[in-house]
Amino acid sequence: MRNNTAQKTETSYLKKLAEQAREQRIRAQKPASK
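Below the sequence we write its predicted structure tokens.
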């Protein structure tokens, strides 16, 4: 059984990864404006 802190850290880490993936996908769809 895992302790609570490790699970929380993992969850926030996964959320961060998901956000980054979403941003990259959006960026890939748009033509570079800069």
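The chain is about 75% helix and 0% strand.
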